[in-house]
């Protein structure tokens, strides 16, 4: 089943850009934004998804995670909506697991 956001794509994109700007400017933390805005279970964990196995995420997110260095906050659109992500560390060399955080709008 495809998740349907309560936001239109334009509003979700604008909100995601505002969230990114606040995090990048240091006026808010990723964790606070996850608690306030995430529409997934990430609000309960302050955005922390823990270690995620390589291949367990949708291709758009997998591809974006390979492009960014740990600590960078970025957004990715998928069929289910917009995701604001932060890769917290490099993937483990033995199993490809990545440590990441997400705000899902």
What does this structure look like?
With 105 residues, this protein is of the alpha+beta class. The protein is built from 3 helices and 4 strands, in the order ααβαβββ. The protein has a 4-stranded antiparallel sheet, sandwiched between helices. A hairpin with a 2-residue loop joins strand 2 and strand 3. The radius of gyration is 13 Å and the shape is globular. The two termini are 16 Å apart.
Q: pLDDT below 50 for ≥5 consecutive residues: which ranges?
A: none
Determine the strand fraction and express it as a percent band: 15-25%
* Cα-based radius of gyration, to the nearest Å: 13 Å
Helical segment tally? 3
Structural class: alpha+beta
Helix content: 25-40%
Mean pLDDT over the full residue set: 81
Give the end-to-end Cα distance, rounded to a whole number of Å.
Answer: 16 Å
Order of helices and strands: HHEHEEE
Overall 3D form: globular
């Amino acid at each position: 089943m495809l998740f349907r956001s309560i936001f239109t794509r334009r509003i979700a994109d604008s909100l995601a850009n505002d969230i990114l700007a606040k995090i990048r400017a240091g006026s808010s933390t990723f964790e606070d934004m996850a608690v306030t805005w995430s529409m997934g279970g990430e609000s309960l964990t302050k955005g922390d998804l823990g270690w995620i196995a390589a291949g367990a995420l949708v291709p758009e997110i997998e591809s974006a995670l390979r492009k960014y260095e740990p600590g960078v906050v970025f957004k990715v659109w998928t069929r289910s909506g917009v995701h604001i992500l932060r890769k917290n560390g490099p993937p483990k060399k033995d199993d490809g697991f990545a440590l990441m955080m997400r705000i899902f709008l």
